[in-house]
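Hello K.,

You asked for the raw outputs rather than the summary table, so here they are, unedited. I folded two proteins back to back in the same session to keep the settings identical. This is the first:
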Amino acid sequence: MSKKLFFFSALLFGMTVALVPACNGDKCPETCGFGICLEDGACDCDPGYEYDTDGICNVLIQSKFAGIYTASENCVTGPYLVEIVTNADVTKVGIKSFWKLFQNQVIATVDGTTLTIARQEPDNDNFFVEGSGTLSTNASGKKVISLNYTVKDEDPMDPSTTTCATTYTEN
């Protein structure tokens, strides 16, 4: 067999193996939506997505958090409204009116029912925020986010740190 024919055969075999679906037989759904099918027939969702009731990766995790909430916390007097909005990055949400102070959105990463606020300076004014929280549902069926965070004023002349516990309850 010539070298050209051998390499062509090897290349053709490699392409055939690469194009064979990763799933076995009829275990796979017709599509996994935003995910891939594993050998056992289950879908493995892409970041930012989770299963719908049929086991297909069609639910944007960020959509579970989106909405208008009443915030009650130990750091700010009186309840106030916040809005959680979806982000172009499907693994993130924006929180408007965070701490009843920030003008720009605080960006949080979502994963399942967890919300994580990486250290950031939303308004470029030496106030940094970071924290985390979890999403649940109360007895009335409303979404509730329990959030703990810190705000650091890193003004070199007068630095301070405030630690807050907040509950966001869906309106």
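The second followed immediately with the same parameters:
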Amino acid sequence: MSEQDKNRWQQVNRPGEGQAVCFDLCATMRLSDGQSVDVPEQGFLICFQGKLRAWRNHCPHAGSPLDWIPGQFFSDDGEQLICHTHGARFEPLSGACIAGPCPRGLFALQFQDQGDTVLVPVNVEITTEL
């Protein structure tokens, strides 16, 4: 991996089916007044029905992490992602909110599947209306 790629991507192990892998993420918030602020956050990578998806670990309703039990994002039946703060439920592959107090779905993150490992972002830019 080139030095430039090391600044954009980090390598994580591929999660098993129905599992998640968490990773550190720096979110650059672009404010409506043109200023920006960097906020340390976390992302998570899941494997569901053999497909990978990466999401920002951030409740769209309250801004809290989804997993109050570290690394646990799936509902008891393993069919949905759940926010442990308010019980909102999300479709694992689309991130769409399907139940609970969420004004929108999950924030998707890019990733690059490399077999046993996956490249996930180091930084992500987020526009906000604060």
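The radius of gyration is 15 Å.

Happy to rerun anything if the numbers look odd on your end.

Regards,
P.
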